[in-house]
Write a structure and sequence with these properties.
This protein is of the alpha+beta class. Helices cover about 35% and strands about 10% of the residues. Helix 1 (about 10-20) crosses helix 3 (about 80-100).
Length: about 110
């Protein structure tokens, strides 16, 4: 994940753990962005919570992407360990969305709070 390791927002560990269960993950690009962006005027999120991540389907010339939003994750997590767990959960949820699976199919330990 682009430059995320230097500040503890390293989703690479989460991705590597998931590769054992879901080999299709190799076809997904993982990206860290500072904040989510609205597409245009009048555009809003479906609920009041700021999203922590996004799943973008593959398009012509671009593989599927999983995006983790740095600032919303940092604000919600109290420390490095909690941030790592939250990043893992976001990655699992977004990979599941991209692949049309349940989060538990992507990571059988999903939701256990590790």
């Amino acid at each position: 994940m682009d430059g995320a390791a230097r500040d503890g927002l390293d989703g690479q560990d989460a991705v590597e753990r998931l590769e054992r269960h879901v080999p299709q993950i190799a076809d997904i690009d993982f990206v860290v962005q500072e904040v989510p962006r609205l597409q245009g005027p009048g555009d809003d999120w479906q609920d009041e919570a700021v999203p922590l991540g996004a799943a973008l389907e593959a398009r012509k010339g671009r593989p599927a992407q999983v995006v983790v939003y740095r600032r919303p994750v940092e604000i919600r997590a109290k420390g490095r360990d909690e941030r790592a767990l939250l990043v893992h959960e976001v990655v699992v949820e977004q990979v599941a969305d991209v692949l049309g699976l349940t989060p538990e199919a992507v990571d059988p330990r999903y939701g256990e709070g590790e």
